[in-house]
Amino acid sequence: MAESLAPTEVPLVGDFSTAPTNSALADVRVGVITFPGTLDDRDAVRAVTLAGGTAVPLWYNDTDLQNVDAVVVPGGFSYGDYLRAGAIAAKAPMMEKVAKAASASGTSGSSPLPVLGICNGFQILTETHLLPGSMIKNDHRKFICRDQVLRIDNNETFWTSDFEKGQQIVVPLKNQDGQYVADAHTLEALEAEGRVVFRYVGVNPNGSRNDIAGITNERGNVVGLMPHPEHAVEPGFGPDSSGFGDVALRGGADGLGVFTSVLNQLVSAR
Q1: Which active-site residues does the annotation give?
Q2: Is the whole-model pTM more than 0.85?
Q3: Which of 95, 125, 203, 208 could tie 131 with a disulfide, CB 3.0–4.6 Å?
Q4: In this predicted model, what pLDDT tens digit does every residue of 7-28 receive, in sequence order?
């Protein structure tokens, strides 16, 4: 029989006893969009699956949302980052549908549609104007790949409700256009309205204003962040540290809460 796990621990593949699975989560359909140049769509699909939901692949050139309850716009280099990172992908037929559903008063399964943009997905969400501001080259002009400590400054969004406010997590970060910028008025509004969701801790890796790593819209259904929670969902295969301390092989799964959050929110709303 496997050893008892602390509440902060996640069972390994070899453990025989795991936390009970909520079968209702499997009824939640989360779309994951693939664009030309997308790199992390399969990782996002796996993250949704490990969280207990049903991942639905969505093609950038289609217009059918396939009755999904939420959407992940994953990372990568859509269209090779030509023009600006995310600029061409933002004009894709699927993103037009997503933008409309995310802004609507009612959609299938949720009102409005929860949307998560990760890295290139965050860039795409700013280009669609679902989120304010823009992403530009890192201030050091280099691609960066590292494990990054983040603080949860807003746990009232669809994508962060399973975290505690102020909680720190560790997830990978990899980007070359990761510097978040906005005018002074927008930054003041984001801070005043509590719309900074994730903030860099310890080091600002790309020069983002106010150490901002991720933000939300006014309604809390659209969230964009630069680091990659989908690469920190499985113990032993993510970062070798965690926001709640060193936990050896059981670490590296801090990002899973991003995906369980939206599933639990949607199930509780039904």
Answers
A1: 119, 228, 230
A2: yes
A3: 125
A4: 445 554 444 334 446 788 999 9
